[in-house]
Amino acid sequence: GARSLVDDGFAATVRALLGRVSASELGLRRGDATSLRGQKVPVGFIDIYSGEELEVCVFAMSKGSRIPLHDHPGMHVFGRVLFGKMRVTAYTPLRRLAEDEEGLSPARAGSGYWAALHEDAVLGPQPANFELAPVVGNLHEVVALEDAAFLDITTPPYDDRAGRPCNYYDAELLGGPAARAWEAAGGEGALYKVTPSDYPGMPAQRVEYDDRAG
In 51-205, at which residue ranges do the beta strands (DSSP E only) sit? Predict the structure, then answer.
């Protein structure tokens, strides 16, 4: 199966490179997000690079659109807000819920976690990096407070056959950072779609990362 590329050196390199990326370098304009307003699917998706160990893409979001709460099984994610303001809410799953969890049906409890609120932050309008780890902050949702776009780098990428499907969740805060989250089977996540479009920027080039360097 694909391995994660992430070690301290790789993470530092990605953060530094992300810090230099702008929307214009990727061929993106604010109008790419504005044009999605009123569309049946108000979130756009641009695939820049897809490989066995790494995926790079852009999400363009019209004001008020939302990417529902979802997970990234065993994955690192490095992101950068390119323009606009968005609210990012992230939870850290702690342990599975009991099957007889009070206030939840057995189906919900059986797919759920006790979790801790990791982040609830407004990012932008100035470009800003964000990231999540295989456990810490691994469940997150994104809401566009303005027309916005962000770059997304995942390693390893989603792969159902390798046991890394994208699962969607509902969550409730219980006071302080404590929360419960459970899979939204047949709900909003199952209906979530994106509008794909072609990448308008410079072609991506594969560069081998040597984790023995340095």
Answer: 55-61, 66-70, 76-83, 86-96, 113-123, 128-132, 139-144, 148-155, 169-175, 178-183, 195-197
As a whole number of angstroms, the distance between CA 186 and CA 176 comes to: 29
Starting at the edge strand found earlier in the chain, the sheet holding 43-50 runs 128-132, 76-83, 148-155, 55-61, 43-50, 195-197
Length of the chain: 214
* Residues 180, 98: Cα–Cα separation, whole Å: 11
pTM above threshold 0.85: yes
Which residues does residue 90 pair with via DSSP β-bridges, in sequence order? 119, 140
Cα separation, 6 vs 208, in Å, equals 13
> pLDDT tens digits for 46-86?
999 998 889 999 999 999 999 999 999 999 999 999 999 99
